[in-house]
Amino acid sequence: MSHITVERNRRRQMNEHLKVLRSLTPCFYIKRGDQASIIGGVIEFIKELHQVLQALESKKQRKSLSPSPGPSTPRPLQLPSTKPDHIPFGFESGGDLGACCNSSLADVEARISGSNVILKIISRRIPGQILKIIAVLEKFSFEVLHLNISSMEDTVLYSFVIKIGLECQLSLEELVVEVQHSFFSEPIFLNEI
Are 149 and 157 in contact (CB under 8 A)? Predict the structure, then answer.
């Protein structure tokens, strides 16, 4: 076969694979039709699927640790963990500064990413909880830049990208504890905001 024929077959096969990837990925992950956008969208979709898998594994682990199938009673909050061997929710250990705080109601994790904070929360679905989390963030001068919500059955994963405000004096450890406390506070209703 000539070089031109081999290259033509390679491009045809690459285009077929890109079409398959595009068809398997929800349309809102792919902004444009070019190859880089398709591959970038597929990467984001796979990351999201990985987060959902981690959420389901965390839910399964919480269920196996609970003593009875009845309503869960809150256990004391654990101190925030910054151990380097602890890699939560798929966070990569690359020297990033991070903290976590887990309870029977939710797992809360935060890490610094550039000039922003990545905040991830896995919990059972609780009506109005997202409002309480956002209220905590705004109370301490954080600005929500991006929010992604993934749910599977009664488990939900909130993924925030938040900007640290100039007035913010909270450490990551204090942030995860404050967000964790929002799960034990009274519900917030839209007409109260």
Answer: yes
Tokens read off for 118:
């990545």
Does the pTM of the predicted model rise above 0.85? Answer: no
CA distance 76 to 89: 21
Do 132 and 182 contact (CB within 8 A), yes or no? yes
Q: Could you give the CA distance from residue 7 to residue 33 in angstroms, rounded to a whole number?
A: 22
Query: Please, are residues 188 and 131 in contact by the beta-carbon 8 Å criterion?
Result: yes
Kindly report the number of other CB atoms within 10 A of residue 30's CB atom: 19
- Compute the 3-state secondary structure of the chain and give helix, strand, coil in percent, each to the nearest 5: 45, 20, 35
HEC string for 124-175: ECCCCHHHHHHHHHHHCCEEEEEEEEEEECCEEEEEEEEEECCCCCCCHHHH
| H/E segment holding residue 100 | strand 98-102
What does the pLDDT profile of the chain (193 residues) look like in tens digits? Answer: 789 999 999 999 999 999 998 888 877 777 788 888 889 888 888 888 887 787 777 777 777 766 544 444 443 333 333 333 333 433 333 344 788 888 888 899 988 877 788 999 999 888 888 899 999 898 888 889 899 998 888 889 999 999 887 777 778 888 888 898 888 876 544 444 4
Q: What angle do CA 134, 103, 88 make, to 5 degrees?
A: 80
